[in-house]
Amino acid sequence: MSIRLRGASARQSPAFRTGSAADTAECVALWVRACATRDGAAVAGVAERARPKFDHAESWIVAEETGAGIRGFVLATTPKRGLPTDPPDAAVVSLLAVAPDAQGRGLGRALLVSVAEELKHHGHKHAVLHVLTDNHPAVDLYRHEGWRPLGEPFQHSLLKRPAQTYALDLDSRAKG
User: What are the N-acetyltransferase domain coordinates in residue numbering (predicted)?
Assistant: First the structure.
């Protein structure tokens, strides 16, 4: 699938495809870069926390540009792979990253919509994700796409910053 993003020509628009084991290292490196950009510095342990999630992929979509490699990806894992407070039947959108120089073009939104559609296609009725509450662009994106806060904010175990669970009813999303 190819998608046209804001400010991108057809030649520059990334093609979406299913991720594979061969993409793991590039996706982890992209996750680390995106987190370092978000946080203002690299944080020890980010790669080590992300890497095992790829072994439990329920949906893994990468956005790739010819000559530039993977520009973004989203990874959702099977239910019960998130926090103990997550609904037991909810797939978990564990990682969503866009290359820092590709942000602001709608790629994150396109990946988020694509993973919700794929999870629905796989038979899931609900999905959750966890976001740092001070990551305002991400929070705004999730809210705009129909994700709603679930439960109380909590402290992120690695970053020691406030985070919030967001949930999406995939049946409502598909109808909306």
Answer: 14-171
